[in-house]
Amino acid sequence: MLKPPNAFGIVQQGLYRSNAPVDENLPFLTGLNLKTVLYLSPEVLLRSVVEFFKEQNVDLHNLGVQAWRPDPQWTPICDDFIKDALEMVLDHRKHPLLICCTSGVFQTAPLVGCLRRLQNWSLTSILDEYRAFAGLKARLVHEQYIEFFDVDLVSLP
């Protein structure tokens, strides 16, 4: 039986979101024909999951380990982190692409919210989607980050 990762969702055609996949999710992920996985958490993925992606020729980009750091101004997410992640998401050569983090919320949801800003969604719609995915894990500071994110930081393809 196929089991998607928790917090799985379709962002748009060829772009998906979820929490960090585990072994029981791998058959489901095979069906997505992923080219790229963008992992946003500082924690390390399970070794078996990393090996699976290698075997499937999926490019794993672990921005969480490479770039996750608190901003010195105490913002919840570093602008450079979101900028780098968005530029990767916007590169359609990397699609189908899965965006994920440990919870599926704390890094993934703000990133998708900032993507929606670039797509000119209304703030109300962006925050509705954020709250739907975040549930009880929603954070006001993330909503504020999405609202005030400077979309001009991102280099569009």
* Number of separate structural domains: 1
Which secondary-structure class do the elements indicate? alpha/beta
CATH class: Alpha Beta
Helix tally equals 7
Helices and strands, in order, run as EEHEHEHHEHHH
- Per CATH, the architecture is Alpha-Beta Complex
Query: What's the story with the biggest beta sheet?
Result: 5 strands, mixed
Number of strands: 5
* Overall spatial form: globular
Describe the structure in your own words.
The chain is α/β, with parallel strands linked by helices and 157 residues long. It has a single domain, classed as Alpha-Beta Complex (Protein-Tyrosine Phosphatase, Chain A), CATH 3.90.190. It is built from seven helices and five strands. It has helices spanning 26-30, 47-55, 63-67, 79-89, 108-118, 123-134, 140-148; strands at residues 9-12, 15-19, 36-39, 59-62, 97-101. Strands 1-2-5-3-4 form a five-stranded mixed beta sheet, sandwiched between helices. α5 (108-118) packs antiparallel against α6 (123-134) and α5 packs parallel to α7 (140-148). The protein is globular. The N and C termini lie far apart (38 Å). The relative contact order is 0.18. The mean pLDDT is 91. Pfam families: Y_phosphatase2. Residues 7-157 form the Tyrosine-protein phosphatase domain. This is Tyrosine-protein phosphatase domain-containing protein. It is found in: Cytoplasm. InterPro entries: PFA-DSPs (IPR020428), Prot-tyrosine_phosphatase-like (IPR029021), Siw14-like (IPR004861), TYR_PHOSPHATASE_DUAL_dom (IPR020422).
